[in-house]
Amino acid sequence: MAKSGAVLVLGGGVCGVQAALDLSELGYYVYLVEKKASIGGVMAQLDKTFPTNDCSL
Amino acid sequence: MAPKLVEAGRSPNIEILTNARLEALEGKPGNFVAKVYQEPRYIDEDKCTACGTCTMYCPVPVVDLYNERLNVTRAPHIDYAQAIPSCFYIDAKACLRVNHEVCNLCAQTCIAGAIDFTQKPKHLELEIGAVVLSPGFGRISHEVLERFGYGRYPDVLTSMEFERLTCASGPSEGHIIRLSDHKPPKKIAFLQCIGSRDETCGNGYCSSVCCMYAFKEASVAKEHEPDLDIALFFMDIRTQGKGFDLSREQATKKYGFRVIRARVPKVDQVEGKLLLTWTEEDGTPKSEFFDMVVLSIGLESPEDAKEIAEIAGIELNKFNFCKTSIASPLNTTRDGIFVAGAFQGPKDIPESVTQASGVAALASEVLGDSRGTKTITITYPEENQELLKLPPRIGVFVCHCGVNIAGVIDVKSVAEYAATLPDVVLSETTLYSCSQDALRTIAEKIKENQLNRVVIAACSPRTHEPLFKETLRSIGVNAAFIEMANIRDQCAWVHSKEPEAATEKAKDLVRMAVSKARLLEPLYETEVDVTPRALVIGGGVSGMSAAISIADQGYECILIEKTDTLGGIANKLSFTLTGEDPKKIVKELVNRVKKHPKITLYTNATLKNLSGYIGNFISTIDHAGEEIQVEHGVTIIATGGRPYEPKDYLYGQSNRVITQLELEEKLKKGKSSLKNINTVVMIQCVGSRGDDQNYCSKVCCMQAVKNALKLKELKPSIKIYVFYRDMRTYGFSEAFYREAREKGVIFLRYEPDRRPEVIKSGRGIKVKAFDRISQMDIEIPASLVVLSVGISPSEDNDKISKIVKTPITQDGFFLEAHAKLRPVEVAVDGVFICGLSHGPKGIDECIAQAKAAASKAVIPLSKGKVSVEPIVSRIDKDKCIGCGICVSLCPYNAIQMVKVGKRRKAETISASCKGCGICASHCPVLAISMGGFTDEQIFSQIHAFAESYLGTQQKDSQEKKQEQEGEQENKE
Amino acid sequence: MSEGFNPRILGIFCNWCCYAAADSAGVSRYQYPPNVRVIRVMCTGRIDTRFILEAFRLQADGVFIGGCHLGECHYQTGNYEALIMAELTRQVLKDCGVRPDRMALEWASAAEGPRYVELITNYTNKIKGYGELGSLEDEDPKPLIVRHLTAAVKAAENMKVRSAFGNVAKKLHKEWDYSPDRISKEVAEKVMPAFRRQRLIEETKLLVKDKELLTNKELIKELSISDEEFDAIIKALSKLKGISIEEGIIKLAS
User: pTM for the complete prediction?
Assistant: First the structure.
């Protein structure tokens, strides 16, 4: 049986989103499964990031 | 991060399933079937315009979880303004309509008709080839927080709550206030290791990120309120990540933080003030009042970790995180299922992002040949050339956006006004320009009226321009022929109490947009072919892992190693903390590299020169004195590192002073190597953290614990002292640190201004040091002193940095493109970094990063083409005087000097250009033009701006230009 | 200043930070004065001194440049380049009789909607306080300012002037020194002399074109220049084909 060209990513935080983006760029269809109503996870709640204090969003 | 979220939201190949959970997973690698259960949002994603009217009218308050329960929202809401999907949703648990079939107010007030209570839960069956688990982390339980007064005293906050307080978009609009009296606190204490390094709550690991974020939050707080007195309570300060240690030190100095070495056992409240009591290092009891206490909460395994493990059929470790190994840090115990991020172990953002890219490579290795079989490629009709020949025919569409714009701005009068502007042949209003039927109508009008420029007066081009561009392309109109006037986000919404002024402003913005639209030129996305081959520089664990991944994903790879042996610094290791054999890891990699048909290996080979750009690099390699030229599309730098060479502590003078690596070599021989060795003293941070090198080498604490345990295993009677500054056994290594202490290894802290000394004593040596607990000088006669030396950057980094033209940090490691979000990319497109070339790290982290680099490298290789954004710079070679100012200012090395006849001329390398326009604004002869942002276009906007008060008498830019040219001729 | 004065303010914002901050202020429905009209560019590094001078030439009362915080530029270094551009613009404005702080250069990140609102509100109020261009005591009257600026826009196109500016940018970039004092010093020493000279030449040309002929005395008075500057201008003008200088009278060549 031919392999499927789709990947399931469980969790849509910064990690899941990055994996989804890279997988889609590599030529795979991605189902990004997130339990909340929006992606972004905890990083979307952060104000700044260490150590550059860049804006997190 | 917002751009990443938007990109994910827009990608036709990423299907975002929100409110969804995995229910079952069957099958085998390549062919899994996943059952996913999805709850309804009750709001139609295609129709919702994110206007917020539903939230305004809903009578049911719910706590705002995005703001950590510090705020209230309503049942229909969006988590935050930039959330993706950019569609509101209804909190089903709170909604009156869902639960009691009453109310329906939101549906009645939604003009877009997006509220849909007929939506039902969905059971989806998805056919997939691989699974990535990235469920993140869970929260420390309330019970643990309660020990520190949380829940009882309102001014005891979690670090996440504090984070929201400091955020401008948070519940207090960025003002740090006490929840008890809404007054700004004067004294704040941060308590570390809440729910971390704490056996009593089952979390015997270090959460790895809390020290870093505590310093961040404290710094942000000080920036808000410079007079704040902030104390931070640590056991060890673990800021081991790249660049973190120095930042911590600078922040501490800059903001005057009080850093206290103590674990505060509990928080009391006395007469409304929070009282902390602790014991100093020397045993002195202390107590102090604070106005606010922030609990630096650790990262717990996800709440549903066990459920996920059961469904996915994977094993967890003893802390309920995903079980992985050093050799395969991103593989779960089930084939075809991979793990990334905090579920693999507590970690920070850059490492999570790195692992995310890494797992993409792993999935791609498994699924290689099915690449492209499920993805959707959007095709567009050919562009209508006739339209280009016509003079500008502009269509203006002024959006009501329901009441969002039309409720403030008189959109009809704006549209009527627009109709009077030059070259405008059609001007209309639309209810919701971005809705599917409005887009269809706009497309029809464009065709009917032969429009070749479109102005949409609506919301922000940042969010909606791609949508309208897409519409233009779908009917054969060049995507560049659109200009937006932002009359919602930057007009109606922000001047809602001044409708007349807002309408005037909207007219001005439309006029400015029309004037630019008249001068819009078609822009074409160009594509550059990619040589489907990678070059990997460095044959250590990182370089080999990257090369194997690229080859396994189906692409040719050239691996060059400067010595005659593969394996690099890992060859010097004999044990790992977890018991895996590093020699075996290296040996397996070497075998695979040597056997892989797609890998060409050159040992004794160095990079001499590199030219070209992403997709088309040409490298010259010195292979044992012979020069070889190779063409490749991408480059990976994996130059590795080397052990720091100690200069002090009698190293080299006494054979009783050795390094940890030398000790490992010795211990390989077993118990016999420890004859006559009864006392071992280890000294940490030799060469690191400001001793000689400015940074923390990240691995030495683990190495010391590892070797201490090995010594104890071989000879339980041996006495071991470890002099350290902070024990940085982050993550699960913490358990081994505890084991070492339990086995009697004595850890003694020293401050950098009172380093231990190694002195000769007769035929032996002893270590003299200041004991912080007894506050006395002590002397320990040692049979062996072991120095934990740091990692130095490869001596080749400087040279390679110059050849590749990508910067290295002050410490000599390669500088990534973005510390958090692009950790394996560099300033030059098509070049990636991994392993010790990027900074000190352990083997597992090197392997994960190598996979990430391989993933990024294969993206252009697998596409076969690199497409170039059309907003790049163009240089008029006739005008160019070859001064080279643009070349030296370009942040991307995207401009090169070429010879045209006998003269030097600048030329844009479109594939590398990002369209910032620094070159254009600095060209002495105005020879550089920016696609979509030409001087003429910007001047026309400025002129249109002035027209509102000067009228139209002023010269338009075309005339002005002709006049200038006339005068140029006059000059010599 | 009178309550009724509504300043005309042009904004030039970078796509990634300040423009995004302005959007985010909208999403949160923060209110601010409706005076600014915004042009979006990808980066503050794209902004040319000419854009700002042109807006003032066209009698804008203020120009507000908004970008990313230093170190957060989407293109790494664009906003550092903008620092130099802004300093040059300020010095030119001063030279043209305009209060330099009618131009503002500020940073706001994408998440800083409230900060943006604060910045733009304060700035608008400041310009309201200043009144119309040319109405401040230390400013020249408006017609004179417009003439100076017309010449300055032309001067800003001059190759030598632009080369001097480009070379300062190149030098500071190489040394990675963007301290305000250093930028100010470099611009004052390396760019301004050429800029001012060229501006005076351009302004003389404008005067000659306008009045057809002009005596040396009139020129010195109109431009309020030193004898030294006068000599330099005459020397430069004498090389131009379109202008003849004879016996203390400057006129258009026949």
Answer: 0.82
